[in-house]
Write a structure and sequence with these properties.
The structure holds 2 protein chains of 2 kinds. Chain A is mostly helical. Chain A is built from 11 helices and no strands. The radius of gyration of chain A is 23 Å and the shape is flat. Helix content of chain B is 38%, strand content 28%. Chain B is globular and about 50 Å long. Chain B is α/β, with parallel strands linked by helices. Chain B has a single domain, classed as P-loop containing nucleotide triphosphate hydrolases (Rossmann fold, 3-Layer(aba) Sandwich), CATH 3.40.50. Chain B contains 9 helices and 11 strands. Classes of the chains: A mainly alpha, B alpha/beta. Chains A and B meet through helix 8 and helix 9 of A and helix 2, strand 7, helix 3 and helix 5 of B. Chain B: Keywords: Amino-acid transport, ATP-binding, Cell membrane, Hydrolase, Membrane, Nucleotide-binding, Transport.
């Protein structure tokens, strides 16, 4: 028998309580957006560099880059966040009393500090997303016909001019759909930062869930993510349309 | 002085020898057609002269500037990068598949290199581009994107793009092969008018009728060799070479 009374209790929150929880989650929207923004800001340029390294004709560099991408895509982001977050505190403990350069370097590491948490979360996210972006960029770059390079060369353009004026603008158009996938995934992945107790929407929602013994805070959090993803979907739809001036 | 001089050019891909001991000259104002069956090396020859393929041996000179010379072992040595860049600007190239830049308007396609390679003033480059487009009968298409043009129009834009750098020599790599027969005519007309202006041109083509009408000389290639190099009348009507006659018969029938 399903206990409907119990379900009702679990969902039951007054309007005032719901407003209060929404307010708390809204405050935590800022750290969520910070993770989102900084990750994009650094992972896109890094992804471009990684793509270039992977296409490098000097094989060892290409192989090393492949290994990096394999690890980043082959292990959970949650695990990567935890490893990056604990790496320095572990080193600090290990170096304790050695009195060396490493100890003095790590003396400022405070795992409970908000700024340390944030930095480590961003590093993990950027390393992970750069790998995915790199593959998107590489696919885009390799899809440009060789004739475009040859036409540019025949016109006397330098390699840099060819890349930035001829190839890259065409690559951007081609990678918008794949990138929009990645960016929308990122907005939801920001919730993984709660594993190191970095306070963002997901962590706040879990705390409020316990606070009120109710699932409603989780639903509210879900609405937050849903709205963000919808806005991004619309934004990418707009960008795709804007880039549709040629085929 | 020859605009282009090629001496003993050879090129192989691994064991496959695609060009054997090719020699020919192109004089100022001449129109040369290169004909021959597929795989005869015509396109590779053109790609070699345009630095898309590295040659193994031979001496190439463009407008008196040495692009490659042979070292004591008979291996081709290329000039320095600055010289190679200068040579590139002396040669205009029109591709079989046009290779216009799809993200740029017709006008921008033409002004891109004059502005960013020759560092010409933008207004001046646009004026030149408009004049060229007028000559191609496309003045009203300046702000269109290539995807909105027919194949013949795209090819005319690509000819204008090549001419915008005022090259000494214009190369055509099968300029009508990607076009249906109706559109072929408009390109041939443009090439003919360029010939009347004494533009030096080398045309790789399968249009035999056209080649015989427009060319000062015709080069017939087969199996990586230059089999014949003569006037259209010598090659098309009075060839003493068995292979040439065989090839041309298939076209006439």
């Amino acid at each position: 028998m399903i206990n409907y009374q119990k379900i009702k209790e679990e969902l039951n929150m007054t309007g005032e309580q719901i407003m209060k929880v929404t307010g708390i989650l809204l405050e935590n929207l800022i750290p969520t957006l910070k993770i989102f923004g900084f990750t994009l800001l650094f992972s896109i340029p890094l992804g471009l560099i990684v793509a270039a390294l992977k296409m490098c004709r000097f094989k060892p560099i290409s192989w090393l880059t492949n290994l990096y991408i394999l690890i980043m895509r082959g292990t959970p982001l949650m695990l990567q966040i935890i490893v990056v977050y604990y790496a320095l505190p572990f080193l600090k403990t290990a170096a304790k009393g050695s009195g060396g350069f490493v100890e003095s370097l790590l003396s400022g590491v405070d795992p409970a500090a908000e700024s340390f948490m944030f930095t480590m979360v961003i590093i993990a996210f950027v390393l992970n997303y750069a790998a995915y972006f790199a593959e998107i960029f590489r696919g885009g770059i390799e899809s440009i016909p060789r004739g475009q390079y040859e036409a540019a060369a025949a016109l006397g353009m330098t390699k840099a001019q060819t890349f930035f004026r001829i190839i890259l603008p065409q690559v951007i158009k081609r990678i918008v759909p794949a990138s929009s996938n990645e960016v929308i995934t990122l907005v939801k992945d920001t919730s993984l930062a709660n594993v190191v107790a970095y306070s963002e929407i997901m962590l706040a929602a879990k705390q409020q869930m316990m606070n009120y013994s109710s699932l409603v805070p989780l639903f509210i959090a879900g609405v937050f993510y849903f709205v963000m993803a919808t806005v991004l979907t619309a934004l990418f739809g707009f960008i795709e349309k804007k880039l549709n001036y040629y085929r | 002085m020859s605009i282009l001089s090629v001496k003993n050019l050879s090129k192989s891909f691994g064991k496959l020898e695609v060009l054997n001991d090719i020699s020919f000259n192109v004089e100022q104002g001449e129109v040369i057609s290169i004909i021959g069956p597929s795989g005869s090396g015509k396109s590779t020859l053109l790609r070699c002269i345009n630095q898309f393929e590295k040659i193994d041996s031979g001496e190439c000179e463009i407008c008196g500037i040495t692009m490659t010379r042979n070292d004591e072992n008979g291996k081709a040595v290329y000039a320095d990068n600055k010289t190679l860049h200068d040579i590139r600007l002396k040669i205009g190239l029109v591709f079989q598949n046009f290779n216009l830049f799809p993200h740029m308007s017709v006008l921008k396609n033409i002004t891109e290199a004059p502005v960013h390679v020759l560092k010409q003033d933008k207004a001046q480059a646009e004026q030149t581009a408009m004049e060229l487009l007028g000559k191609m009968g496309l003045a009203d298409k300046a702000n269109e994107y290539p995807c909105n043009l027919s194949g013949g129009q795209q090819q005319r834009v690509s000819i204008a793009r090549a001419l915008a750098l005022s090259p000494e020599l214009l190369f055509f790599d099968e300029p009508t092969s990607a076009l249906d027969p109706e559109l072929t005519g408009e390109i041939l007309k443009v090439i003919k008018s360029l010939a009347e202006e004494k533009m030096t041109m080398v045309i790789v083509t399968h249009e035999m009728q056209f080649a015989s009408e427009i060319s000062d000389r015709v080069i017939f290639m087969d199996g990586g060799y230059v089999i014949e190099n003569g006037t259209p009348d010598e090659v098309f009507n009075n060839s003493q070479n068995e292979r040439t006659r065989q090839f041309l018969e298939r076209y006439h029938s």
